[in-house]
Amino acid sequence: MDAENIPVAAINAHFRLMQLNFQSWKPDVDAWLHSKEAEASLQELLINVPCSPTQH
């Protein structure tokens, strides 16, 4: 299915599901983001997707 043929309701439902999923894992994600284990992944992410003032 092409992206332009996906109903808006389906896209919104998918975003809501992602939001609920992230919220349920928030304590674990917060802990990981501040861990030594995350450093390499976060550095790689910042190399590939530089920070922008509009994102902070």
Description:
62% of the residues lie in helices and 0% in strands. It contains three helices and no strands. The longest helix has 17 residues.
Give the helices and strands, then pairings.
Elements: H1 8-24, H2 26-33, H3 39-48
In summary, what is this structure?
With 56 residues, the chain is mainly alpha-helical. The protein has helices at 8-24, 26-33, 39-48.
Number of strands: 0
Helix content: 55-70%
**Rg measurement, Å:** 16 Å
Alpha-carbon distance between the termini?
Answer: 34 Å
> How would you characterize the largest beta sheet?
none
Q: Ranges with pLDDT <50 over ≥5 residues?
A: none
- Quote the beta fraction: under 5%
Mean pLDDT: 83
Number of helices: 3
Helix and strand sequence: HHH
| Structural class by helix and strand composition | mainly alpha
Q: Tell me, what's the shape? A: flat
Q: What are the defining features of this structure?
A:
0% strand, flat, mainly alpha
